[in-house]
Amino acid sequence: MDKKDKPTKMHHGATPEIFSNAEALRNQMTEAEQVLWEALREKQLEGLKFRRQHPVNEYVLDFYCHQARLAIELDGKYHEENGQRFYDADRTNNLEELGMRVIRFQNEAVLENLDEVLEEIREEVKRRIG
Q1: Which one of 3, 68, 98, 125 has the fewest CB atoms closer than 10 angstroms to its CB?
Q2: Which residue pairs, CB below 8 angstroms and at least 24 apart, start in 81-86?
Q3: HEC-encoded secondary structure of the chain
């Protein structure tokens, strides 16, 4: 088993297939994901390392800060559909059972109010790690 396949606490047993999905998603980020990534990458926010399209268990998180155990999800219009809402709630519960905090933003919020989104992330990080 190579390093990429070895389950770690950071990945909570994500399979090689989930890692492959994450890699594919990194190459097709939405506009909102690209905008937020530019603000989070290279430890620009509070000196914390964020990862994009990060595999955890059976999921690929849009963004993840391991130090704060914080998952950030960006939601487009399809997240408003009932079936997707149920899936998102279940996913959030599963991630919170792993000790993570999940925060969600609409794509429009990132594109129209990036400073407010970053401030909310900053506040959540402070609650999580001080």
Answers
A1: 3
A2: none
A3: CCCCCCCCCCCCCCCHHHHHHHHHHHCCCCHHHHHHHHHHHHHCCCCCCCEEEEEECCEEEEEEECCCCEEEEEECHHHHCHHHHHHHHHHHHHHHHCCCEEEEEEHHHHHHCHHHHHHHHHHHHHHHHC
- CA gap 109, 111 in Å, rounded: 6
- Sorted by sequence, the CB contacts under 8 Å of residue 42 that are 6+ apart come out as none
pLDDT in tens, 85-130: 888 999 999 999 999 999 999 999 999 999 999 999 999 999 999 8
Residue 120 CA to residue 130 CA, distance in Å, equals 14
* Domains, the chain, ordered by start: 16-129 (3.40.960.10)
Q: With left for phi above 0 and alpha for psi between -120 and 50, is residue 2 left, alpha or beta?
A: beta
pTM of the model: 0.88
Average per-residue pLDDT for the chain: 90
